[in-house]
Amino acid sequence: MSAWAGNPWAGFLLRRLGRLAVSLAVLVTLAFGMIHLIPGDPVRAALGVTAPPDLVDARREALGLNDPIGVQYVDYVRSLFSGDLGISMTSGVPVSETIGQRLPATASLAVAAFVVVMLAAIPLGLAMAVLTRGGRRRGAELGFTSTSAVVAAIPEFLLAVGLVFVFGVTLGWFPVAGRSHAASYVLPVVALALGPALLMARIVRVEALAVMDEDFVRTARAKRLPPLRVYLRHVFPNALTSTLTIGGLLLSGMIVGTVLVENVFAWPGMGMTIVSSILAKDYPVVQGIVLVYGAAVLLVNLVVDVLLAVADPRSTIREG
Amino acid sequence: MGRDQWRAALRNPVGAVAAGLLVVLAILAVVAPILWGDAAEETDPAALSQGSTSEHPLGTDALGRDIMLRVLVATRYSLGLALLATAICVVAGVLLGVLPAVLGRRAGRLVTAAVNLAVAFPGLLLALFFAVIFGVGARGAVLAIGLAGAPSFARLVQTNVAAVAGRDYVAAARVAGVGRFRLVARHLLPNIGEPLVVNATVMAGTALLAFAGLSFLGLGVQPPAYDWGRLLGEGLDRIYINPAAALAPGVAVVVAGLAFTLLGESIAQVVGVRAVRRRRPPAADEPAAALARAAAEPDAVLVADDLRVGFPAPGGGWTHPVDGVGLTVRRGETVGIVGESGSGKSLTALAVAQLAPDSAHVTAQRLEVAGVAPLGRADAEVRELLGTKVAMVFQDPMTSFNPSMRVGRQLAEVTRVHERQGRRAALARAVDRLRTVRVPAPERRAHQYPHEFSGGMRQRAMIAMGLMSTPELIIADEPTTALDVTVQRQVLRLLEDVQAETGAAVVLISHDIAVVGQLCERVVVMYAGRVVEELPVGRLGAAAHPYTRALLASVPDLATDRDRPLATIPGRPPDPADRPEGCAFAPRCEFADDACRVRPGLAAVAPDQRAACWHPRTQPLDLALDAVPGGSCDTDRRWGAEGPPEPSVQGVGRLERVRDPLHDPTSDRGAGGQA
Amino acid sequence: MRELSFEGTTVRFGTGRSALTAVDGVDLTVPAGSVVGLVGESGSGKSTLAKAAVGLVPTTGGEIRLDGAPLRTSRDRRKLQLVFQDPHASLDPRMTIGESIAEALPGRRRRAARTAEVARLLELVGLDPARARSLPSGLSGGQRQRVALARALAAEPEVVLADEITSALDVSVQGSVLNLVRDLQRQLGLTMLFISHNLSVVRYVSDVIAVMYLGRIVEAGPADAVLSAPRHPYTRTLLDAAPAFGVALDDPVPADDPRLDAEAPSPHDPPPGCRFHRRCPIGPLTRPERTICAETDPQPGAADRPHRAACHFATDLMEVPAP
Ligand SMILES: Nc1ncnc2c1ncn2[C@@H]1O[C@H](COP(=O)(O)OP(=O)(O)O)[C@@H](O)[C@H]1O
Ligand code: SF4
Ligand code: SF4
Ligand SMILES: [Mg+2]
Predict the structure, then answer these.
(1) Residue B239: which of A165, A229, A257 has the nearest Cβ?
(2) Where does the record place the region Disordered (chain B) (predicted)?
């Protein structure tokens, strides 16, 4: 510990991991509490009003719902640590097995969309910033800002419906449902990525424009550096912080955004499962999937914070 | 937000369209269920799941109900639910957001932490979570969406409150004894109202879309009730048969959502700072011939004649913060420019160095900088020609360095680009230059980031950056204003030494006439974008322009008589947009008369001294120059009987000699220099 | 008007690595009816001291008293009023200046009485009472600073603290605000702590001058005495550095000695012994025999030295030849 005390990085990571632990604890508690916050008897709700009382009671017993709440909580946490997320109330399949099957489809969709967002948005945003700096090209600026505002405001599931109609139904270029070969990724990824990409490009542009107004860019110009060098060396690195922050938020949003897109494209991921489970009141499955989404989001936040600390020489890690 | 701003938001085409759409939607929400409510429920067994027909333009659903009517009627329910969710979100958000300001420190921090934790989770995840708890259905969905949006709204309120709470006027109210609740009600909330209104509007759009999403997933509105999302979900199943059944509610949702979002954004644009518009430069102005100065010095590094810098005015037309400045600086000369903030000093400097902001329009009868006439040339050409001939030192050494680049590399960049030096050679020169300006441990410092430097050291590094090559002109714009007096003295001394060593001309800009008096040979006084007087420092006591004289008299120094009131200048400097006709100083001048309605030109009042005034003063001013009991000349007495400590040897410990600037300094590193 | 005194006032910010003592055991008395000027470079803790007095930052030690009675509650502290540096930030942009001033009036009053009082205050600071209904955005910096003074006076304070109130103003306006401060002080017999980094400005309004360095008062005494016969080398250095007409930069002053540090050390990590010793022209860096400076803190014996100077050698410089 004392050897660590001097190292700001160790201190930072320790603090940051501590925060992750607290967040995870809150997440687990909420997931656990979800079943107990539901008004009425969740088992009765899941099995329907016609289910015989002794079946309901047997199921309650099996789920441990008849134990005191403290005991239930301890059991829940203990089984989480052993990788046991419970058993589906309707199908009887272990939840971890279901998630194991469904997770890859969701993750590949989210990651593919994220990569597309980053590759498209950063160059676009920077280019627009350079083109429209200092009030140049009002037309291009207005076109970009209003188009991107409009498109970014269309939610992914509506975009998905539109894409299905145009490219699936009318043109028949891409499959409209299911996950198979690469072509089946095109529409879901576009539906998921388009809005965030435009949002991100807008933010990159605004940030880059703000940096261009900074004193040190004036200094760079006073050094008579070529414009490309000014933009790449002095402007972009300083717009990176907010780009990263927003990128993290977008990634979290896209992970969960898959729920809607999956339901449009009948994508066999967790999103399909969670919706059908909510409707079927299959609470253990819902709990498990909420935990996975939540943990993924917290992980993304952690990675972003570490990247921010690495990227910014003034970052808080030195101040503590 | 004033009425004018609302109007401006509506004048913006996007805002106007959005507002118009919202009005239409509101009307529909009221009348559609009354007019068509029953018809939309009518099942037509003869027309189940039809495509578009003349009777049912958008087709029918599985029970044969008319889809167009159902979309229209669903307006009320869709909007109503969305607004309800928004209301929940805003109320919960504002409560959570204001709580930290009302609660004590510790409880406040807890609330903030909780909100921060919740914000990390995307809204949809929260909405799903709440939907499970509150149950599937409209009521559950309203609560879920409202509460899911609350954390981010709370965070918004918190950041805004924190920003406002840090302002001096809130501190002042607290000092005046204003209580917590009144503070929130009177000072905090009203000052964050604008962003809140904007975001609530945007939030309404988001809620509408989110609602449609939940209904689409089957988690929202349950049959027999229907909203757009539900219609959309039903339509999607049959998109191959009747695309309109899915597209119509989809379009309705998008249009309504966009109307809210875009209205919010156009309000935000009006409220926020608007970008400066670039406009075509004005047609060539009538030459201010009377003011032009013809005779240019042969050995001048800087000649500016009738230099004007214009910006597009908000109400159309142009304003000229720099309005016909003439300035000549000879090789090796130090010239000071003084004037109050807003008098155009910095803009003059930037325009001369070709660094004026993009939206500025720079003209001059004649402009020559280091033998280059930059006006009318392409940027690249100016860069090429000026290269490293003009060095700049800016006011705020903190913000003038790139925070994410090591200092050494920022210096080295100059020679790497302009002299195509290799990395190591350039860095070696940077270290050498840092040593030259007395930055301690230059090798180590070169590898540090700017924030690891102190203010004075940054300013030294800035000067070192100018010395990476051999500048002919150094323009220092308020280089010491952000520094303490002791550090100021050292930076000024450094500038003086640099000037002596390199022979570069120095233009020192300052609001402090005493600072300029210490370093410079000649002083140029600016007022309202014009030069009003130009004189050698030694003649400051014989300043002729009433403004120069007032400036000198109104600033207390260590010799000012404490029993007499300070001289003051009534009024305030004019805004460049409405500079008075004639002499700009006339409204504040005690000698103004009818003659002053005509703009005075700079005219000689003594050898080397020119003033722009119809009634130049001739009486000498009492500047109590050398009789200052406590001025620097008093050093001996101040250090007491013991006498001052041995003065440092001239030159040593000031500027380490800039080794012959024409040679590569890296070649004789470590040698004691040629002094 | 009553006497304000700081006794061992200490303010610490932050914890661990980032901890810093911005105000470190300050003893300072502002006698009733007089103006004490506080000078020092930025970051020396002047503003923090003023904020601690009015309760905007919590103190971590010591006592602040008004006529000997410790200030504890916010009601006590209302007797001290602070005027801020930036006149553009210190008035609520959404309140008319009349409302801003009225808000500070103590007790409940009838509407008419409030209006009359606001008008009286505006007149007192040289503004047209009809201005009461205008918003701050219509006022110049100097006018706003007058409003800020009026608001401070509205609270019927025993002591006014003015923190760099002329630093953000144009030089041509600064003079009129300084005149106003002096007039008000004489007219109302105000007790005042006047903070500025500018010695000439402080000198113009103050009866007593206190010099602050790295969180401590290193010298305090009657204005004339401190300026003409300073006891602490830091005060001398400040005076030497003040720009003045007719004094060339290349006349070296003792602080130009290259062996000395050019700038103040980090407040996070103040040097041992005398905090000024790495910059002191008569300290151990120029006179190696003065090892005491680097080892022993001169603060403890300060009260017994002339001008309460925090310097071991303050008395060595006693005899100053007559001018
Ligand atoms: N809220 C705060 N948190 C941490 N440090 C602070 C805070 N306020 C002031 N400081 C630090 O306290 C020191 C004294 O600051 P200040 O009182 O503003 O000095 P001055 O008014 O003399 O310029 C500085 O180092 C400053 O950075
Ligand atoms: S021209 Fe007239 S108004 Fe202007 S400064 Fe001279 S006397 Fe005053
Ligand atoms: S104690 Fe020593 S170092 Fe400190 S001020 Fe006095 S002489 Fe200088
Ligand atoms: Mg301060």
Answers:
(1) A165
(2) 562-581, 634-675
